[in-house]
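Example protein was shown:

_____
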Amino acid sequence: MYNGLSLDQAPPFSAVIRFFLSVPVFGILLSLIVFFNPHAVLTPTHPLSLAAVHLMFLGVITMSMIGALFQMQSVLGGRAIPAPSGNAFVIHLLLVIGVFSLSGAFVFQFPELFVIASVFLGASILYAANLILPLLFGGASHDTLRGMRVALIALALTAILGIVMASEYANASFSPFHEMIRTVHYSLGLIGWVAVLIIAVAFQVVEMFYVTVPYSHWCKHNAFRIIIAALLLKLFWLFAALPYVWVFDFAIGALLIGFVVTTAKRLHVRKRRVSDVSIWFWSMGVSLLSIAVVAYAASEWSSYLPLQSVSLIAFAFFALAIILGMMGKIVPFLIWFHLNSAGYMDAPIMSNIIPQSRAKWVFFLFAATSALSLGGIFIIELFVLSALTAVVMFALLLFNLLKALALYRYTRAHGTRFEQI
């Protein structure tokens, strides 16, 4: 099942879990902002809306993805991250301070916080890219690693553009290119970073975990090329003020729909028929991605503003669905793997680390939150209710992670190792 993985290069459990533990904390903070300010959050240019967007895409999505990259780069690329515990601590600390600063800057409108956020977020993301990117070149090479390279470069560029815009907010002075920069910032962040990394991960884990038919060679070989070309051409068209920019969005949208169809088909005809909550998350995730693409296309043709909110929220929940599904697989596996590697006889089996009953409740709460959030764009009371279900969902996620960590630490402290027999 794990052929081709360099498990001996895996970083310490602490390097990964610190990122995952921060995810529900930022998720709860985001949910509280939505609960107390639903109308403002649904107003795209409102500061509280910008705070909510960055809490989701930095505090929840990017936080978990960088944590996952520490694990995936090592085991897929076969090259260990140097000083993984120390580097993870530094990147995580900088990212946490940066996310708090940026969300606080939007909420309280303190110019100084935009400067602090620029320094810490820029340092965290660029440091992570500088640390991981060189390891993705020169060693093992396959489609998932190539996608990870593209995603990290896009994340670094997104951060640089974010620093430019943060300086404008700090000085309350916006250049004539502000809207153009914002569009590129969003495109690189949502498509170049989030979508590309999820597609890259899917090429590896969907086949490996669920024993599916492999993605086609054409798909693996050309997906990232198409996205790169479309994003670069869109950037050029925007700055040159040329018409028909929508053509490049159409190309990206068509590719994403193709990914939805091929992934859904593989999950449906998978060889491993065992019921698995993570499959529910993947299935719902690709469904939400299709909603996001269709809503975005409809908003471009109709200029009906609520559809933009549908597209962004559906895309955010698509990413969150994949993250929650993978987190439920990764954390139990890492605990089992590290305890077994250390020689503990009584290492818990993976299904007992996060019980299926609690994992299912996370999914049910996620499904309710997604549906209520999308419906809440049109009926504000549903949007408020979605914040409550989100708080419960993230609280349960935090409980699951803390219980798993406590079990890991207890086994390390009190378990019996083979060498002690």
Observations:
- The mean pLDDT is 92.
- The longest helix spans residues 306-341.
- The two ends are 30 Å apart (CA to CA).
- Residues 328 and 388 are 22 Å apart (CA to CA).
